[in-house]
Structure formats: structure tokens, C-alpha cells
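Hi! If you just cloned this repository, the fastest way to understand the data is to look at a raw example. We've pasted two of them here, unedited. The first protein comes first, obviously.
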Amino acid sequence: MNVLLAETPPKPLPFPRTSASVGAELRSLHAAGELGLPLPGGERTAARWAALAAFGRRDLALARLAEGHADAVAILAEAGRSPASGALYGVWAAKSGGTGAVLEDGALTGTVRFCSGLSLLERALVAAGDRLVEVDLADPRVRRHPDAWQAVGMDASDSGDVVFDRVPGALVGPPGWYVARPGFARGGAGVAAVWLGGAAGVFDGVLAYLRDRGTADEHQLAHVGAMHTALSCAEAVLAGAATDDVDALVAGTCRAAVERTAVEVLERALKVTGPTPACRDRRFAQRVADLPVYVRQHHAERDLAALGRTVLGAA
């Protein structure tokens, strides 16, 4: 693992972690210019994905917010627009359970779930039907509901529901542009780079546990070898994709490969360690709780069926 994942893990966040501490670290990174990732495309894609993987390996709640900001900046650049100076951005596009924003007379109405950074961010790109709208989150008609987020995993990502009550905004791109643009597939694969970093973070915890114990039996070593192989293979898929034009087939393959790896790493990790670090090491326990929540942005068999449909159509 040395293309997108550095040999030395990044310095983790201090624990216990909170939404406030994650938000403070995000603002610090933004002020230092460390959220200014290379825009995707050509040789810059690999560097961008390596940075996203490093965020994920450091902390997935932080990575979720960093990736959302970086994705919004890339979307605006693709539309020929610049982000508001100094603002932290997110992309809120979920249509879970029949919810979602709609555009009525130029204003946003409706409820959007899974909005990360809802109390921290200054601006968001919100999907409304076939349009994308940039919104100033200081508008009092933006109502936040952080209590909707009850998960232990990703608990510090400042997530929840947002209700828009006729909130005006600026249209970004023509109708249908958001999902039709080339950057949509690149962004989806970029999220997979964050998942890869999160899986590597769990693996880091497993290795630290074994090194602290000073011993490992053959069964534990077999699981370590399998996890290393899975991570290396997923990294190779992403690294190879970063050199090509990323279309729906490539992005779907990247996301499926990393999702499978994350599931395998999670399953094998606790077989190696048993319950001890999951019960006595808060950082390890948090990593194990965060990853399955985040990686479910991949919709399992539904996304695999869509990938299979694409493969069949391309054959």
C-alpha cells in the first residue's frame, strides 16, 4: 500500500472526539489551505484521492466534512464558478425515504436527510429535482435538526436533517447538469478513496493491537495477510482508475471494490482482536463504528446491479 495510502499513518485526532473538536480541526485545515485539494482530472486525480484517503485514515468524521467541501469546490469549478471567500461548503443531495428538496418559484422547499456539517458550514450545494442550488446557510429559513442523527458511528460528523422553507439560492448549471457532468463519476470514486482510508485506519488499529501484545498466532497472522491483500487490491483499482477518464463504469467498479474491502476488513479485524480493543480502546471502537455507517453510501446489491447493467450494456 504505497500509491494512495502512505506507509506511515497520518496523526490521528485527539480522543474523545466531538463535533466541536472535529469542526475546529476542519476550520484549522481550511485556514491552512489543506482543504484546497487538486481538482480531479488527469494526473491530479491520484493526488486528490491520496489526500482524501489520508483524511479517511485519520478520522472518518473529519474526512466526511473535508470530502464534502472539496467536492463542492470541484463542482463549482466545473460550472465556472468560484466558492465564497473563506466559506466551508457541503453537498447535500440525499433523497432518502421519499424526502428531498424541490425548487418552487426559485426557492428551495423540503427536507434533506444526511446533511453533514449542518451547524458548521456556511454554504451548501443542494440537489433539488434536476437542479443544483447554492444556498447561504445563514438564512433563517434553513432549519437544522441534529437530533435526527442517532447513530454512534459518524456521531461527530455534525449530521442530521435540514428543512428548507422557501430558501432562495443561486442555480448551478442547467437542468440535469449535476449528474450528467464528467465530474459526477470522479466525485463518486473520490468518496471511495475516503472509505479506503477508513478501512486502512481500522487495519492500523489491528496492527497496533498486535504489536502492543508482542505476539500473534497463525490465525491472526492469516487475517492480517488477508486484510493487507484486500486493501492493496482496492488501492490498486483506485490508483489505476486515477490515470484514466472516470466514467460510471470505472466509478462503480472503484466503489464496489472498496466497499467489499471495507466489509472484509471489519469482519476480520474483530476476529483478530476479540472484544478487548472494541470495549477498552475508544479510538479503535470509534473507527469500527464509523466505517460501516459511511461505507453504506454504497447501496450494496442495488449498486452492484447497476454496475452489472452498465457492464452488460458496454459488452
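Ok, and the second one:
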Amino acid sequence: MSIVAAACVIIGDEVLNSKIHDSNSRYFAKYCYNLGIELKEIATIGDDEDIIVETLQRLSKKYDFIVTTGGIGPTHDDITYDAIAKSFNLPCELDLDCKARMTNISNPESKLDSDSLKAHYRMATLPTGKIVENYYLADDLWVPVCCINKQVYIFPGIPQLFIKLLNLLTPILKTTYSIEDNNQDYVRYFVKTSFKESEISTYLRLLQEESSKISKNIKIGSYPHFGHGFNTVSILGTSDFSDYLAKIRDQTIERLNGEQISEAEEERISNDFENQGIKP
């Protein structure tokens, strides 16, 4: 079974001008990893219609599963729905189901004046057409995950909402992309070595060339850890090649005088900015 190829689009000027820190792409990367989905690209773009249209049209030609987060609020710069609709030559219209859910859950009509209410309904003005499906995944939320062509899934940018809706969408994604539990899971090993990256580069290049003949999905990488006195080698592949991955792990430990460390330990070291002399 072929692996699902995914992309993530983070939309918002506030990310590009450093007003907020993007955590959604990191969460999505872990989510894909756990499901055996291959995340191929993350794009961070501003609230610019032309750029959003260009990005979505480009990605939709390459990837099976695309998520967008951000830009679906009530203000003038929240243009994601309109821009993505334009990417697929679709109209954007006030969705009556979404409006009804708004009324039942938050009753904005009783709280907002006419101008504010008009702005509020921008969040219920969604891409419309035969290739559009709106998934209402939680009884306490009126916002849907708007899906276009069973390929592009539009999420809010608020991390708590993004995480909640993405996890609730999982059963639908598994059905859509024929993802089975424990099928095509990733296996990853980390090997710690005191050798410098320049000293191991030839070995890793040859190992990647050899591994690519076994499977194009096996990836060999190296990660420097300044201030710690060692580097790590990453060996990543799908579970159907687990025996081969274990073999090259053992080979790497022997060749580089290394030792295996856990994924949690590698993450802890990678985030240890103080010992690396880096201020986050």
C-alpha cells in the first residue's frame, strides 16, 4: 500500500511577523508520524490571497492530504475561506447549517450589533459546491472542518481547536486514505556518536544509497548537538522493513562507536537550548 503524502499550510501574518509562535505544524508532524503519513512539506504564508491561491494550487497537484490552519476569523484579514475557494474555482456562501449551529451554541444575534454580526458571519461563509464537505465533529463547536475534494482540510489556527478537531477527524481520515491501525507505521532509531558530522558523512551517504535500493521511504539523517560533544544519527523507515532498519542500526552503532538513545531522549537534547548556547 502506498504511503499517504501530506502537506501543511500555516496561514497568518502574525506568524511571519513573530507575533505568535506556530505550534500547529509541529503537532501535525507528530500526528502524521504516528499514523504512518509522510509529511512532505510545511508552508508558512501570510494573509495574501494571491499567495494562498498559488500555494494551494501547487500543493494540490502533489499531495494527497493537505491541512491549512489560520485565517478563518471575523476580521478583514481572515481571507482563508475565500482564497481557498478561489483556488478551486468555487463560490463562498453563507452556510445555513453553520449559521444555525452558531445560533444554537453561542447565540450571537443576542450579543452583537448588525455590523458585528455581519463580521461574525464571515466565519460561516464557506466554500460551496459538490466537492465540498463540512465535518461537524464536536457538539460544543459550531466551526466545521471544511474539506475540499477529499484532499484539502481547512482548520482554525487556534492550537486548542486545531488539535481537538484534527484528532476528532482521525476516523474519517483513516477511511478516506485507507489507513489501517499498525499499517505502515514508522520505525525510527537514534544512534549517538562522538564522531563529527564531517567524519561520518561518507558512511551516511553510502548507507543512504544502499537503503534507498531497499525502500525509497528509508531516510538516514544526522543531527549536531552543539555543546553536548556528540551528534545523533537518525534511521527512519516503515515497519515493513523493521528487520532491515534494526540491522543498519546495529551496523551504525558498531561503525561509529555509538549507542542507541530513545526518541524522547533525542527530543530532550534537541530542545536543550541552554547547553547549546542558543536562546529560543
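That's it. A detail worth noticing about the second one: The longest helix spans residues 159-176.
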